[in-house]
Amino acid sequence: MIEPVAGVEAVAPRPASPLVGLLLTGGGARAAYQAGVLQALLRIARDSGVPADRPLPFQVLAGTSAGAINAAGLACGADRFDHAAASLVEVWAGFHVEQVYRADSLAVIRSGAPWVTMMSFGWALARFRRLRPRSLLDNSPLEALLHRLMRFDRLPALMAAGHLRALAVTASSYTTGQHVTFYESTEALQPWSRSQRLALRCSIGVRHLLASAAIPFVFPAMPIDMSEGREWFGDGSMRQAAPISPAIHLGAERVLVIGAGRMHEPPGRHVMAEGYPSVAEIAGHALSNIFLDALAVDVERLERINATLALLPPEARARTPLRPVQALVIAPSQRLDDLAAAHIDSLPLTIRTLLRSVGVSGHGATGGAALASYLLFEPGYTRALIALGEADTLARREEVQRFFGWPPGAAQRLPWPRSAAPDERTDLTGRPDAPAWPPSMRPA
Q1: What phi and psi, each to the nearest 5 degrees, are found at residue 200?
Q2: Alpha helices in 289-436 (DSSP H)
Q3: What is the rounded radius of gyration, in angstroms, for the C-alpha atoms of the chain?
């Protein structure tokens, strides 16, 4: 018998059905696209007759980088899908860079200017340790924001009540070179270890999110105390050979993957070179490699494994530890570099000046807009991403309904339990008693 937990409604055990996982990949400001996809999923669910006050239709949540922050926000409000999705959209629609990193002149001089100086004259200034900056930008506002929004103390109760099986957040250790998946679950799941990859069960907190979202060179590394001492961690997308793996290891039999960039470029598309690439172009290309390429490779690997298993006779399949996993991948249908180029002027002057110093001038990938697309936490850009995510998902309505087993336009009995229905609108934490959003975070 499940005992009631304060603030969370206890539910009966879930009926036997495929365990559904959600994977949210990284990409800085690009992760606003994921909020649009979730908003569309909620709309499709309602159109299919799904009541609005249900828990998340995902039992396993896995995230990397900014996707880890989105996944944690959903997990903390897992008892109400509608509130969790709506709150995520509201936060992304009202973002300004000052809520993620410091954009005032003094902060930029302290962090970004020394970085550019060291790249230019580091050979002559190497003796001056005070001129060795840790990152291009100071993301202390993001830390303060996450402390205000996230209620990780709700996770054990939500898991005990049956609303959530596990939350996983990935980060990359600069200290050991290993790719680490931190996961929280009330069930005794077996940790896994692979070449340069390992999983650790722990109580996830803000420090894990900051580590997972520490874009290399842009945001500072985050220290986390491990069993053998303190290690410094950076963005979880680095050295992430198998992004879908954590969700599968945590029991997911179906995985919805929401990317933050196009999976494949259309054939025959070529951009004419205009001289030697700038630092911004090279950095944008490197970040695209970190955030985007591994996912496409992992999806192809999953499809090959599924195809191979389908060829095996039942007795052979029973002898292999591999199992088929259904994946639905939703990713931007447009180049986000081009979308970002139209919004670079919305950045504060200090940030535009800093980016200009490394070659960001707009005009898509050839103007360094790829780099800007990860840092453009401004409402014009994030709302455009939300709209794109919603449109891309609605265009695949039938695929979504088949994936979740939602009949088109008909009421149904859901495979996940009914949850509490608080009267007040909750924030990203899922708290019914949460304070109103500050004016700086409300959409105009």
Answers
A1: -130, 130
A2: 294-311, 314-319, 336-341, 349-357, 369-373, 379-394, 397-404
A3: 22
C-alpha 69/C-alpha 209 separation (Å) is 6
Summarised one tens digit per residue, pLDDT across range 254-297 is 999 998 876 666 555 555 556 777 777 777 777 777 777 777 88
**Residue from 210, 375, 401, 145 nearest 283 by CA:** 375
What's the distance, CA 439 to chain centroid?
Answer: 25
Beta bridge partner(s), residue 203: none
Task: Please give the Cα distance from 78 to 8 (Å, whole number).
Answer: 10
Neighbours of 380 (CB within 10 A): 12
Of 419, 420, 390, 405, nearest to 45 by C-alpha is 405
The CA distance from 61 to 21, in Å, is 6
- pLDDT tier, 121 (very low <50, low <70, confident <90, very high otherwise): very low
The burial of 83, by beta-carbon neighbours within 10 Å (0-12 exposed, 13-18 middle, 19 or more buried), is given as buried
Average pLDDT, the chain: 80
Question: Which amino acid type is present at position 319?
Answer: R
Tokens of residue 48, six digits: 């299919």
Give whole-number Cα distances, 25 to 63, 235, 246, 340, 405, in Å.
Answer: 6, 11, 12, 19, 24
User: Cβ contacts of residue 407 below 8 Å, gap of 6+?
Assistant: 48, 49, 401
Give the pLDDT score at 264: 62
Q: Nearest CA to 171 among 134, 133, 226?
A: 226
What CA–CA distance (Å, rounded) separates 90 from 93?
A: 5
Three-class SS of residue 325? coil
User: In angstroms, rounded to a whole number, what is the distance separating the alpha carbons of residues 152 and 260?
Assistant: 25
To the nearest 10 degrees (0 to 180), the angle between helices 379-394 and 32-47 is 40
Here the tokens at position 426 are: 């909750």
Q: What one-character DSSP code corresponds to residue 161?
A: T
Q: Which of 439, 443, 437 is nearest to 382 (CA)?
A: 443
